[in-house]
Amino acid sequence: xxxxxxxxxxxxxxxxxxxxxxxxxxxxxxxxxxxxxxxxxxxxxxxxxxxxxxxxxxxxxxxxxxxxxxxxxxxxxxxxxxxxxxxxxxxxxxxxxxxxxxxxxxxxxxxxxxxxxxxxxxxxxxxxxxxxxxxxxxxxxxxxxxxxxxxxxxxxxxxxxxxxxxxxxxxxxxxxxxxxxxxxxxxxxxxxxxxxxxxxxxxxxxxxxxxxxxxxxxxxxxxxxxxxxxxxxxxxxxxxxxxxxxxxxxxxxxxxxxxxxxxxxxxxxxxxxxxxxxxxxxxxxxxxxxxxxxxxxxxxxxxxxxxxxxxxxxxxxxxxxxxxxxxxxxxxxxxxxxxxxxxxxxxxxxxxxxxxxxxxxxxxxxxxxxxxxxxxxxxxxxxxxxxxxxxxxxxxxxxxxxxxxxxxxxxxxxxxxxxxxxx
Length: 423
Ligand code: DOR
Fold this sequence. Notes:
With about 425 residues, this protein is α/β, with parallel strands linked by helices. About 30% of the residues lie in helices and about 20% in strands.
């Protein structure tokens, strides 16, 4: 195990200190023999934790693998990601979640935490083997049919009841499917002008309202994926005020981009839930700042060229997110004065770790040295061709972003140094 002295780094943007990393933890004592990393001007944050990553393995290794997605995650400052279950085969058995977990260990760049499907084959007909996945080597705690909603209220109720036994959580992709049939983008004035079928805000809000009532009724934990509308924030605020055990995430793209980008007809902007209006973006930012929304989650959704570089109607929804999430969060939340570094760390590391059932990350002596070093003064322009992801569908190509990850450590070992992955 290597020993590192990270010199002159500012934890959470505060006063600079020297951080000693030894035996995989943040240590005290002698730095003799340590490799020195000059971190003057850099900010240290606990390693970021993503609640919502599509790694596409098994099944679509042409779009992403556990290895390439892990590298993209480390480059984005992440030390743990939750790998969504909509793979092929679906991660609905102990066998598949263990396979993904093992591939993550072999890649060794981030902790890959498989998400288990709620229903067999994501078909929404009967519950998957939730207990077997929880008891497996992968120790699954988050269950989601993401990409699809668990539509049947009785099944949703049963899933919420079931996960209570092992402290799990059901992460719902909130979309009332009858209201989004044929939908291509947000329902509103832009969709009307473009003549595209709209995805109404109510399709998301109706499902969240139902689910917070179910979660309150059975006293279980609900997590809401990729919240995208102002009305959803209102419902979550109401549910939390009543004491319902609900948490929620918002993606970087929903904090920054709006539905008028659909007018370009560039499918890179096609995503589910769709980009919404400026009023929704403002409400999401306010909800994230006041704690109504707990976490930022990437919904990193790599797609092969042939699935994305086609006409808008035929293109798959989804955007890359891992390598740009922190920069977009800084742009949307820090440069607007809504959150400081500590606030960002809470929403990109501590809260997602809590929701996912991982130990609390921290920059204190004795804590695992899983951390990221960020250059807050850097500005950079994402180049899809340079992405570590196997896919190219970033909406930020050619767009200047603030702040850049310089180094990432996973339990004391560097996974990124000088902005480059170490493996
Ligand atoms: O845009 C999306 N892409 N939203 C989802 O819910 C699923 C995801 C995917 O798997 O590509």
